[in-house]
Each structure stands twice: as C-alpha cells, then as structure tokens.
Amino acid sequence: MTDPKPSMFLPLKHRDFAFLWTGQSLSSIGNAMFPIILAMVVLDRHSGATGLGVVLAVQGIALAVGTVLAASIGDRWRRTRVMIGADVVRAVGVAAIAIAPVHLNTAVFMVLVIAIGIAEGLFLPAYSAVPPRLLPEEALQGGNALSALSQYVSMVAGPTLAGLVIAGVGPGPALWIDVGTFAASLATLVFIKETDAADARDESADEEEPGGIVRRGLRDFNEGIREIRSRPWVGASIGMATVVMTFCVAPAFLAAPIVAEKSLGGSAAYGGAFAALGVGSIIGSIVGGKIRTSRPGTVACCGLFTIFGSVGSLAVLPLVGVLICWAIAGVGVTVFSILWMTALQQDVPDRVLGRVMALDWLGSQGLMPLGYAAAGLVAASIGTRDMLIVSAFIVLVAAPLPLLVRGGTTFSSRPAAVENEPAGTTV
Asked: Which residue of 170, 289, 377, 399 could cross-link 8, Cys pair, CB 3.0 to 4.6 Å?
C-alpha cells in the first residue's frame, strides 16, 4: 500500500479479476433480489408470518452450515471451482422453485432452501479468498473496493428490481431473473485462470482411508483456528466484530422498524434509513479504495465508531439526524470492511485463507440470530430506547479493542519495523 495516487479501477486491467468482478456484479443483483422474492413466495403459499420466520431461520442455519464446511474444506480445491459448484447448486435450486413456486411440496421447498443456503455459505468465503490469486498485492485494496461498490449498488438496485417485477408479473419471473444472474456468474467463472497456491498440499491419500475425509476436515478446521490464534490482531478483530454485530447492530436492525413506526413517520422512514445506509456504503467503497496509510487498523477501527451514531440516533434524534447518522455509518463500516479484507488477503497464507475467511464470517455474522432474540427480550424488559443507548455505548468500548494487541494498529503480522513507520493517511 505504497502508491500515493492509486487508481480504484487498476484491478480491472487484470483480465481474470475483470471477469470475476463483472460476473459477480451481475450475480449480486440476483442475490439482493432473492430475499424479497423468497418472502413473497412464502406468503403466496399462505404460510403467514410464522412460516416466513421458519423459512428465514432455516436458510440462516443452512448458510452457517455451509460456512462451517467452507472452514473445513474451502482450501482443498481451487476457489473458482468451489464458486462454480455453489453457483450451479443455487441456480438449480432457484430454478426448481421458479417452476412451481406456490404448488411445490413443502418438504421439497425446504430442501431447496437448505441447499441454496449451504451453497451460499460455501461460496462467500471462496469469493473473499480468491482475489490474491488473481491480483498483485498492490491491487488488492482497489479490488476489494470495487467488489464492495458493486455489492452495495446491488443492495439498492436488487430489492427495487424485485419489487417492480413481482408487482408487474409475479415472483416466478423474478426467480428466473435470479437464475439468469447465476448463469452470468458461471459464464465468467469458467474463463478465469486461477493461480494455484505455491504451498498447497495434496492429501488425497487421507480420502482413501475410512473416515479420512472427516479427519482431514477437522484437521483443516483446527488449522484455521491456529492461524487466527497466531495473529492476535485477527482474533481480536473477529471477537470485536462478534460483539458489535450481535449486541449493537442486531438490536439496531430489530428496533429500526419499531422506532420508525412510533416516532419517525412510518415505513417510509424505515426504508429511508436503509437507503441512507446504502448511499453511505457506496461512498465508503470509493473512499476505502483510495485510502493509503501505514496504520490501516487504526483507520478501520475508527470507522466503526460511526456505528455509535447510527444506533444512538434511533434513540434520541429526529428523522433527518437518523438519516445522516446512518449514511455516515455506511461510509465508516465499508471503509473498515475494505481495509480488513485487504489485510487478511495480504497477511494470511494462501493455503489457509479460505478457512480464515469462513471463520471470520462465522464470528461476525453467525451469532446475529442470537442477537435478534436477545434484543427482543431486552427491549421488552428495559424499553427500546434504553436498549439502543446501551448498545451504542457498547460500540465505544468494543471498537478500539483490536488496537490494544500486537499488529492491531497496522492490521499486519509483519516485523516491528512496519510499526515504526509514520502514521500518515492519504485519500
């Protein structure tokens, strides 16, 4: 990260990354459409709110299971092959639902939802871990910024497109659009020439022994844990993210529609808050791609302090203040994500990167369902406003914790000489 005037679009000069980014930009639109479509399909099946809750819970559990599998086996195959396999499963699953979304047998419907969730859990860590095999180190930050940019644009465009298509012609055609985005992803992935890790190991002999696959998977999972433990800044950051996502972000997401309905003007205010978050995230993608600093950990963790404003604003501010705070939080959290992802890709050995990425997801996202459940109980006990104030102050305590351990300020395990460089930051 030494180029004083880096170009965010430099990674697109690399053929294989350009294929990856193009395909995933299209696919992410379908990914953003799917939750909206799935909800409409479930409601059209007359399953009601309870049925929708069950489906979403099952999908979340399946996603976590897929990520656990990725933490065990994700570095044993080329990452693009894992992504291709996951895309095939998701495309087939969505197509099967699209054929008969309302009349599909309930058991078959749930199996398809589980398969789609597991495949997504396998896909996400592989996608996060593949850029170092396609880009030189100096282009990784720009590549992560581009990926974040397309993701957040899709988060705005996908639900909008899904709503328009469902309103016009129903959920079936919307599902086929999602299938088409998977096809676009597959069409680009097959042309990518992924560089194999120099230190990849061939342990196929284990598979020939009884229980060899399971034993190898457990060994690989434990190796991912060891890599995290050997890098205090990684473990501290994942732990911090677990606390913030579970006890701060989950309560805010749970409280947002309640507060919007009671004091901010209704559902339009709720949608406006997430629109502001999306706009801020798009801006954060651009800013995050341009930052150059010898203290990325410090800059990243400072970005998370913006969550304090987004959570606290729901408790004390009018709508305009909430919108501003949520937009600022979008910038800060996205800057953190880009610097964090780049640091992992640069510091963690390629042979275990997929597993570390999977464990990172489990730590930061895996306990959010528990956070939603706990937030509901706490809000019922002390009130929504007090819960939000407590959650906001948890951010202030948790966000700087990674800076207290070795490598936390630099997001790096490299020699101490790096720690002594001037702490300048340029954008």
From this structure: 289
